[in-house]
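We now fix the convention by which a protein and its fold are recorded. Think of the row as the fold of the chain written in a discrete alphabet. Here is one such record, which you should read through line by line.
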Amino acid sequence: MNAQAYFKVEGLHKNFGGLTAVNELTFAVEKGAIHGLIGPNGAGKTTIFNVISGFYKPSAGKVLYEGESIGGLQPHQVAAKGLVRTFQETTLFQEFTTFENALMGRYLHTEASMVSALFGTQRKSERANEEKTMEVLEFLGLAERKDELALNLPHGLQRALGIAVALTAEPNLLLLDEPFAGMNPEETRHMMDLIRKVRESGITILLVEHDMQAVMGLCERITVVNFGRLLTEGTPDEIKRNKDVIEAYLGTDLNAA
């Protein structure tokens, strides 16, 4: 494995009591890539994301970002280094507007509190944050919805707003946790376009996803895990043809993706 990989995990373990959720996992993500992390239900994907993003400490092994070990850092410390994640469930403030939600991501870049931001103190810093927030909303096509409450947005736009919150934190590596969950085909196509646009802006993307059509259509390289272990990795075409992957998915028609 390339020792200079942009991001990698090496020999990663995560145990919960007597249960091993991640076992001797090693994989790398190239800078500028859209890299998929897939596996059947219970394969350990979300645990891996939680370790990478600082919500869990690794039991053993390394998490390396640009050669620096970040395993065991707190989530806000990981995010401050440029690794920012979204979540499976929409974690929005439903009673806040689109703009107010997106503004939340700016607090990695200011000493102001959320309360001071929303109620108008520390204006110099906040003006810069507000400008950046509007840039992100315009980038994702959400600017016209800036004054709508999050709870009134369609599901696909709520998921896009979750990405907006992450982007206002100015990530270098964006960790997307099931960005297509619950989407209809039109919403899925729109989200795929947004993810490509994010990558084109210079952000590297690692995504966990169950929607195989989206994964195969977006990712240059895919890592497959099963029971917390690396099963295989390769290009979408290689993954589609891999007998071990087909068996792990118990008949899922990967070739339809």
Remarks:
- The chain is about 35% helix and 25% strand.
- The two ends are 29 Å apart (CA to CA).
- The mean pLDDT is 90.
